[in-house]
Design brief:
Largest sheet: 4 strands, mixed
Number of domains: 2
Shape: globular
Distance between the termini: 27 Å
Helix content: 10-25%
Number of strands: 8
Number of helices: 3
Structural class: alpha/beta
Strand content: 25-35%
Radius of gyration: 15 Å
Mean pLDDT: 88
Low-confidence stretches: none
CATH superfamily of the largest domain: 2,3-Dihydroxybiphenyl 1,2-Dioxygenase, domain 1
CATH topology of the largest domain: 2,3-Dihydroxybiphenyl 1,2-Dioxygenase, domain 1
Strand order of the largest sheet: 1-4-3-2
């Protein structure tokens, strides 16, 4: 049974450029580093882990194209501003801002980062409800 997101990893041909781009977007530096192989950031209310892996270590048969895997949606407080910031930093629209269910408050969007990875963002009332019940802000 899935219990919640633990780590999301993205592959990058240019690991240093990916680290710099994500550090700029996230506003934090990675807290963990394996030389020429991996960077990891801790982000968000629950300090979820976002890892960047040198594409040389991708699983055999992994494809280097958009949409070759699932989309992890990260809850954000201001979807439109976050989407705009990602585009400003060079990401490309993958999925426009889309309301999911009329009037439910679930809204998603996705971009391709400059390294070919999909970043999903979302306004998610359920996330906020869980956060409130666990004492988060």
């Amino acid at each position: 049974m899935l219990r919640g997101m633990a780590t999301t990893t993205y592959f990058a041909d240019d690991l240093e450029a990916a680290k710099d781009w994500y550090a700029e977007f996230l506003g934090v530096q990675p807290y963990f580093h394996v030389p020429n192989g991996y960077y990891e950031f801790r982000i968000g209310d629950y300090q979820h882990e976002l890892g960047l892996i040198n594409r040389a270590y991708a699983p055999a048969g992994a494809r280097n194209e958009p949409g070759a895997g699932g989309i992890v949606n990260w809850h954000v407080d201001d979807l439109e501003a976050t989407f705009a910031r990602l585009l400003e930093l060079g990401a490309k629209e993958y999925e426009p801002i889309t309301e999911r269910g009329q009037g439910t408050g679930f809204v998603t969007a996705a971009v391709l980062d400059p390294f070919g990875n999909i970043i999903g963002i979302m306004s998610n009332p359920h996330y906020l409800d869980v956060l409130g019940r666990t004492g988060g802000v």
